[in-house]
Amino acid sequence: MCGIIGYTGSQDSVPILLRGLTALEYRGYDSAGLAVLNEYGQIDLVKKKGRIAELQKALTDICVSGHTGIAHTRWATHGQPSDVNSHPHMDISNRFAIVHNGIIENYLMLKQALMNEGVLFRSQTDTEVIVHLIAKFYMGDLKAAVRAALKQLKGSFALLVLCADNPSSIVCAAKDNPLIIGEGEGENFIASDIPALLEHTKKIYRLADAETAEVTPDGIEIFGADGQRIQKAAQLVDWDVNAAKLEGNESFMLKEIREIPAALANTLARYTGKSNPLLTIDKKAFQNIDKIVIVACGTAYHAGLVGKYAIEKLVRLPVQVEIASEFRYGNPIVDARTLCVAISQSGETADTIAAVKEAKARGCVTLAVANVVGSSITYAADYSIPTLAGPEIAVASTKAYNSQLMALYCLCAHIAKVRGTLDKTALRAFYAGLKRLPALAKKLTEGDGGLIKLAASLKNEHSIFFLGRGLDYYVAMESSLKLKEISYIHCEAYAAGELKHGTLALVEEGTAVIVLLTERAIAEKTLNAVSEVKARRARVIAVAPKALDLTGAPIDKIVRIPDCPDLFAPVLSIIPCQKLAYYTARARGFDADKPRNLAKSVTVE
Fold it and tell me: What pTM was estimated for this model as a whole?
């Protein structure tokens, strides 16, 4: 969850660390801090509760500089946000400093043992036990001390370690959390995510589980769990450095909504070109299966529901969609004839990675859908197919969801082709429909379509309900999530047919109800639910295609989307709902990019 950055080279590390933290603030923003080795061989530490601006303000009153340093922006797990609980953490002698992303599950036992030995703790965090263990095991070799400390830990981590005895060296380690080393010229970088490195280098190395590394200005040495040095090939990141910058937009979320057409076009191009990753997958992975299980969390889960609908409709295979955090605890009924599809924007979602490992242990063929090539989930799965959304900085996912849908449609078409459930004519029509989506999406991302005014009318609502059937219900779920997570208005999505089985009791005069009406074959059924809430004097807002005649329908406001095949409508219908969520948050005075209590990459259970 947290963002970490490290630098060693000839430049002053402080400005580089601060820019890196800013690029990672979507990973956590309740506190921030840095530790820098100064010219006197001492570690200077500055950390503050609050956003990075508070740390920058503190640094204006303190002279801190040095060529090697580490920094951290926090999403709290252990210990409330405060100056003292902020990272980095140091040992009692102030000889060692660390930053950490992850959770140490046995920290209480370790903490008690260290306290029995006379160690004094300053914070409430689980992280502090690590730095005291490193100090305990240090005998002049920092790498050996780190490895010895890691053997005591149960849990997950990505960590960077400074030692006053090693003025130009950073030792780092990873387990079940992402850590990336960026290679420069006469300088090197370490970070928890790619955006922090883009302005410096596109040549990166990813640490795998149980690997450690020593990073100096002149070199990168990577070691396996046994302490033996290993060779790794560098990866080249193809993201544009400007993709992680605002470029004149008022927020990342609005910028990323505007980038949906490009994300759709780029993803589709990958799956219709010569480098189509689906063609590299053994056909038996799709032929020798009886069912498909999709595992995902949050927005990716909602994308998976749309994928389920498409696959069942076109391939006629049973598909179940499981919340990844529940999958491995439910004794799932899967085997070698099950394909497990895991969806994760970051590719580092801890629960989804754990679900993949559980599925593999039970014999499933596993396939990852991720936005970051080379991320942990792409290594955990047997196969991986990318979405090409580019970096997504806002915590609330937008373009990543749309590109996940595109990748899932292409996966669906490929499975249908392999299994022979769609003929060539139907496949051509299917892809022709997909190719129209980027241009249709562009019409929705341009201008506000009256949504700013609509958002202003919703800003004081206490509860908002979303309704839909079939695909529209799945989009309603994602729309509800978008609105609640950034506007803090209570929102719920309901299947329209379930309304009279209890939910209708919550509807009263003036209640805002947003209904999705893109499945034209069942629109009349959904309109029955609209009549039911309207009879209770609800305020009804509909999202519907232009061709759907709603003359005389009991609807107060209609938001129109371009016409397209019903199966593809979720790609378009979600866009006005994403924009409405954004404008509502803005109308309420909230930062849509950084909603309270949330972080972008959920790397802990």
Answer: 0.87
